[in-house]
Amino acid sequence: MVQLFSTKLLSPAQLQAFVCAGFALEMSDFIKVVPATALTWVPQADYFLLTSQNALYALRSMPCYEQLPHRKAFCVGEKTRKLLEAEGWEVVASFDYAKQLAPYLVKHYAKSSFVFFCGEKRMDTLPTTLKANHIQLQECLTYHTQPTPMKLTKRYEGLLFFSPSAIESYLRENTLSGEKAICIGTTTQAALPEAVESYVAERPTVESVLACCKELFKNR
Prior knowledge:
With 220 residues, the chain is α/β, with parallel strands linked by helices. The chain has two domains: 99 residues, Rossmann fold (3-Layer(aba) Sandwich), CATH 3.40.50; 113 residues, Rossmann fold (3-Layer(aba) Sandwich). It is 32% helix and 27% strand. The chain contains eight helices and eleven strands. A six-stranded mixed sheet has the order 3-8-7-4-5-6. Strand 10, helix 7 and strand 11 form a beta-alpha-beta unit. Helix 4 packs parallel to helix 5. It starts with a strand and ends with a helix. This is Uroporphyrinogen-III synthase.
């Protein structure tokens, strides 16, 4: 049985999917998300931007959440979109990556204003692109990402990574030497040392990460 380790705690259903596919999966959270200091003002813009579920989880805990002028948003990630819609938001459009969302906004919403709910380690893609095209953007810090590294005491054939921050945390206590690194997306893969044997899921979802693992280890 192929031994895998996930640097993120998966849901019981996701874990069961790996087990049913014939994998032995162990897991632990290598990062911790902490809400930022609550905003003391109510963000105002034509649209809101979210590139992470963590941004919404943190925003919901702030008093300003119920006072937002509307709930129209653009987002990155299928899970983020589903969470927003479950909360009653109108998701105007969603993309797998910020590098896809940014040019779309420039082309179709250049005269609109945006508030970007994000963490302190957010990628520069959206702010850089929108500001370069003179599109009004305000960033609101809603959460912090803290590393929670741990030393692994056994070897695994595959390591699952879901964010650049988790890779940074993992490398504080561990090395990569021969394991296959399976990443949820290209941004995460880019955080790995160049010499590491790495693979990227076709889409940035846990289900696609599982599909990637099946393909990699299908002859085992």
